[in-house]
Amino acid sequence: VAMPTAAGRILLHLCLLAVFYYMLSFTVASLCTGIFDVGYDGRLPFRQRFMFDTDEESAAFTSFVASGLLFAVSVGVSLRCEPRLWDYTLSVALLHFVASCLVEQSFPTNWAYWVTVVVVAAMECGIAIKVGAVLQADFLRRKAELNP
């Protein structure tokens, strides 16, 4: 079996991460519907309105933030040896933005949505990089202990 090229490896990682993000996002969204006692229609992870006027908007915000931060930790854990963890997190965030526009059939004009997206994206990048660095340093330390 031939090893994939660098571009093929990156594309494979992006596809796997996108699938994982949506699995995580729908799981968190279903938990948020129970917590906020709102109906689940399958579109909660794609909501673009975060004005907190209703429980559904609060559930959408909580779901977006929680799934984004949990995803960043998982990227750092799964791809700790990759040099560009921030690139993977931002690529999946951009993919999610496009998917949200397609599902909601609108472009978000809500200021709270944009502030949330920018802050969560920055936090995702920082968390993924930090988790990856800590785990890589631990891996290198253990490797050095095994091979003195």
SSE topology sketch:
Elements: H1 6-36, H2 55-78, H3 85-104, H4 111-146
Helix pairs in contact: 1-2, 1-3, 2-3, 2-4, 3-4
Instruction: Assign an overall shape.
Output: elongated
How many helical stretches?
4
The amount of helix comes to over 70%
Compute the gyration radius: what is it?
17 Å
- Would you tell me the overall average pLDDT? 89
Strand content: under 5%
Distance between the termini: 34 Å
Main pleated sheet: none
- Catalogue the unreliable spans: none
- Element-level helix/strand string: HHHH
Summing up helix and strand content along with how strands pair, one would put the structural category as: mainly alpha
DSSP strand count: 0
Quick tags:
148 residues; mainly alpha; 4 helices
Describe the structure.
This protein is mainly α. The protein is 75% helix and 0% strand. The mean pLDDT is 89.
Task: Give the gist of this structure.
The chain is mostly helical and about 150 residues long. It has helices at about 5-35, 55-80, 85-105, 110-145.
